[in-house]
Design goal:
Layout: H1 2-16, H2 19-53, E1 56-61, H3 68-75, E2 79-84, H4 90-96, E3 101-105, H5 109-114, E4 121-125, H6 131-156, H7 177-185, H8 188-215, H9 218-222, H10 228-260, H11 262-265, H12 267-272, H13 278-305, H14 309-316, H15 319-330, H16 347-358, H17 363-388, H18 391-394
Parallel strand pairs: 1-2, 1-3
Antiparallel strand pairs: 3-4
Helix pairs in contact: 1-10, 2-8, 2-10, 3-6, 7-16, 8-10, 8-13, 8-14, 8-15, 10-13, 13-14, 13-16, 13-17, 15-16
Amino acid sequence: MKTIWAVFKKEGLDTIRDRRAIISMIVIPMFIFPVIFGGLGFFAIKEVRKAQNKQVIIGLVQPIPENAVVSALRETEGFTVTDLEGDVDPFDQVENTKIDAVIVFESDFAEALEGAGAGKMTLYYRSTGNGGIMRSRIMSVVNDYRQEVRESRIQSLGYSMDFINPVDVSFEDTATQQEQIGEAVGGFIPYIFIILCFTGAMYPAIDLGAGEKERGTLETLLTSSAPLTHILMGKLLLIICSGLFAAGLSLTSMGFAMLSMGSMIGEFASTIGPMLQPLNIILFFSLLLPLTILFASSLLTLSFFAKSFKEAQSIISPMVAVIIFPLVFGMMPWVKLSYVTALIPILNISLASKAIFSGNVPWGPVVVVYVSLISFAAIGFVACTKLVGRESILFRS
């Protein structure tokens, strides 16, 4: 145990001196969530409010009917209505002038509404940017008028609105709010944490294997009286701690980001808060531990196999894509945790996390997830000790 601890301390000091490892372990996990929740949330909300408060310029192409919907558009706060000549090109007006939207009425618009017909109009607008919000603002006025006309027509016939709505359906969702949010966000949380856990372990692993080869210190370490198993365990312990530290730091960063941005993201922060209960976090990290051991074993083996630090980077970096695929697949709503999916590494953590954070845990498959992850971690550790023990791997020329 003293040997393992000595190797752990020695490699830990070397890792702290490595700028790349510090960036992947500390800097990125510390700032990623403030950027996501703070920066992106701030600019998104700012743009939405800007679009909602923007003075929308609407062009009405002549002939313009004398109608209540036209009067409503002219009187609505936030709209500036201007009349356009009948021969203008609506596309050109939207694309090349300051007019945000152009409305063209059919020639019989007012007459159709006075009778039993439908008055037809065309709204020209650009959907990109904040055009969707602008369209919603205009259509809210039109929809209010449409509802008034509909009710007036039904009442003039001596009927109520129930005449055209013969079946009144109400919906009661049996899923709790936590289950709904957990289903949607629970797959995203492991995506972030597993990626950060992997990258947090990656650079220390590369440095402790290929880096030692380049520095020429590996031979000195192997000729010491310390057993190879103890040396590997010390290195693996540091890599595991690095990965878990990156994940833990990112969780702390997310908590502070949500607290500081609570007033900005409002209801979302208060809704997602119950998901991050201490028990849920403990369960999630208990799933992350055996996966991190598997990551550490695989990364250290590949690092020792590489001839140089640069080659180790080129071999290990593509593994991120291998990790991303099951994580993205696990975010799909139709993929559920079962006894079969519980056996697939990474995917099983994504699905188990959705179940944990939603508060609806199927304990049978979750137990299988633990067993499979621990088994894969054990296999990874044994394979690492066997492969790294070969001189053909350690001193590949």
